[in-house]
Inverse folding.
């Protein structure tokens, strides 16, 4: 398995599925995203609907995933690895993913 190719930035303000084969707007899925995916330890991330998460699981490697919540698209939110969710650093006792995997300071978001 390989990590997916990173394409153009897709608008996530409405939290749509980011699946876009061929990397053109005409092929965007656009359905409401149900999953938030962390692709790598630098927390490059994306959103997927149920159908396209199944596609991801068959073809690609990723670090973590959790159901989409309102905090996923909020500036300043952190990925809580053990709790399988996004949130704010002061709202949990669990460390964000960057701390949980002991990333070097320059790689932390």
């Amino acid at each position: 398995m390989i990590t997916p190719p990173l394409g153009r930035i897709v608008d996530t303000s409405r939290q749509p599925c980011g699946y876009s084969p061929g990397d053109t707007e005409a092929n965007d899925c656009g359905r409401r995203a149900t999953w938030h995916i962390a692709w790598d330890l630098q927390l490059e991330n994306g959103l997927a609907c149920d159908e396209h998460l199944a596609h991801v699981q068959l073809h690609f490697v990723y670090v973590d995933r959790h159901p989409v919540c309102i905090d996923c698209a909020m500036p300043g939110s952190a990925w809580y690895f053990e709790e399988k969710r996004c949130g704010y650093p002061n709202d949990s006792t669990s460390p964000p993913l960057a701390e949980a995997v002991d990333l070097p300071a320059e790689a932390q978001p």
About this structure: The chain is about 15% helix and 15% strand.
